[in-house]
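Anyone? Bumping this.
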Amino acid sequence: MKLKSGFLAGALIAFALAAPASAQSSFPEKPVTIIVPFGAGGGTDNLIRSFQPALEKALGKPVVIENRPGGGSTIGTAVAARAKADGYTVLAVDTAITVNPSLYSDLPYDTLKDLAPVSMLATGPVILIGNAGVEAKTVDDIIASAKAAPGVLTFASGGNGASTHLALELMKQVTDIDVIHVPYKGTGPATTDLVGGHVQYMFNGISASRPHLDSGAVIPVAVTGDERNPAVPDVPTFAELGYPDIDPMTIWGAWVPSGTPDDVVGILSDAFHEAVNDPDVVGTLNELGFFPVGSTPAEYGETATSEIAKWKQVIDTADIVVE
Amino acid sequence: MELLQNLAFGFGVALSFSNILYCLIGVTVGTFVGVLPGIGPMAAISMLLPITFGLDPVGALIMLAGIYYGAQFGSSVTSILLNIPGHAAAAVICLDGHPMAKQGRAAVGLVGSAIASFIGGSLAIILVMQFAPPLAVFALRFGPTEYFSMMLLALLAAAALTQGSFLRGFGMVVMGLIIGTVGIDVNSGAQRLTFGNWNLADGVSFVIVAMGFFAIAEVLSNLEPNSKPQMIGSDFKWRELVPTWHDFKQAFGSIIRGFGVGSLFGVLPGSGPTIASFVSYSVEKKVSRTPERFGKGALEGVTGPESANNAAAVAGFIPTLTLGVPGDAIMALMLGCLMIFGIQPGPSVITDNPELFWGLMASMWIGNLLLLILNIPMVGVWVRVLKIPYRILFPSILLFICIGVYATNNNVFDILMLAGFGVVGYVLSKLDCPAAPLLLGVILGPLIEENLRRALLISGGDPSVFITHPISLGLLLVAAAVVVVFSYSGLRARSNKPAPIASPDND
């Protein structure tokens, strides 16, 4: 009898100990919310929605996408950073997460302390395009023209401190040229003025540039990335033209509030890996000019740390001030 | 006639059973979205976008377009009946539409606005069909320099929006310009007037200001102990729906002028229906022989802007479809939708995807007709809305506005801001300060500043670009002419009337 109750107690203790572990390994038990700190229909939103069905399949639970736009992604990111660290709130964000720490002095969160990396989702090279009427149509010609007449060529961007602006600053620093930066409220109106010939060049996403490249309204100059992009196979890379340091990439990644249990992060990371490498998703992403990744949390953490350092240097050198 | 052939082809596409159904769904959803204050077409389209991925591209676009112009159509209903704009572009409809309702002429206002929308939209469709490519090329010639001159001209038109005291109107424009500067400055990245609050970093949404100043302020004023009892809408008769010959004569010219203004602003990316409706109102007041009727229930003050905002909504498809250059955020969403279907917008869209282009154009006409058919019988229903006791009606309105404002950004701060603007708007309306000039300041201020600085940045700081660019020069000359005409008529009015005291707003 004593033995029996001892066994029972032991079993109960073992069960009690095992219970939380099994609860966690059965994650997720309810829908997972992905916070997108940009508006619906934007680049990050489209990317996440493109693999949402595959992610739901991998997790076995519905995935809810919540758009929390504003403040250059800072508002939505702050919401995610303050969420309960149980894995049911995930942040999906682009390069802004690694740029903002150097851009803003008073972020409402501490990127690496309040958030933990889950997975790098995809990378997107950017393309330098020019109005069809420009005289300098290659990287070398642009540099030569800018050196001959400093402060004359005009480059549009999606805003002060936007990725399309930072790409330009990186190019200016690598090639030591002086051109006029013309910021717009988003790449949309900037592209309009590029097509209209009111500005001469801009860095832009590949998928957004495609219609204008196809219609001949703008010309491609060069793309970033280690190899030519399957979406625009005829366009040379900066690296093959001899400028390997002009390498800005848009990197999309997923984060959770720090303190989220490691096994939950692992389950999420595996699910993201599976989702972005789903054959249908890969096809869609390549069509948009993106490369799917799906890394481990540690790999993404390393990339994020080095990206933060890289953009800090570019931003400090260019003296871009955003209060 | 090539146009007729194309039209026949387009109607062949649009008149298929499924496409008529998509069109009907679109305009019905659009009407309701328009009627519900605060929920604009933007929110509705972004919510419905994922559903359309299962449709064929033509059907999807027909439905989304239906929501877009259906919302322009429906948003005037609450402006007229309750002084609460369904969404931003309809704010100006409140100015004369609501006084009409107070005089028991709600039905005339509603029917007038429905017919004006239909005519403005239909004429714009013909314009798009016949002249889309050359108009798109013309629109591209508008750069920062041209936009600056054009927006300056539009701001001068604000002078016509002021009623009574010039000083009050001017003060409200300035306050609007100040609200417009809130947020991160595009050029320097500096945060202006945000008081360190990240929620203000993107500036103050025009929708929130418009809802606060019109809708919340209206609800507040109805809470006053001695507020007027419910009296309108009780004596509705179907015969009132038939416009009199007098009404027709009054409205016809304004509809045609509204179409002109609307098409111009619609074709140009970055301006859109809201500015078009404001400018149209100013034009109507200026050309009227009896401008003193405006603000007190002038039918032209409803039909002109109504025609303009629907024409602008249709004309907005020109740059979007033929250049791949979206005119506003909603058009950008539709463009994204097209690209998901693998359709590359651009000059070739008409030749490569004729069923899409002509089918959409024909469907818009069908949609506008459906709206007219749906809405005329609905007028009786809408007017009866006024019979709902205020103690039920107003809390429901507040609820819908809050949902709408929250749904745009999923941000509670926006609701607090709405409440703040509501209180300010109420106090200012008690002081007889007109809201319309402030709203125009909020829209135009950032556009003027941005384009001025951008134009100077590109020219290397040389201001002569504004007079060396021919389009810009033309616009500035018109602006100068407007100033001269204003001051001349102002002087004449002063010499005729000995005491130009501020006429208190009847509103």
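Late reply, but here is one note on the structure posted above: Chain A touches chain B through 50 residues (CB under 8 Å).
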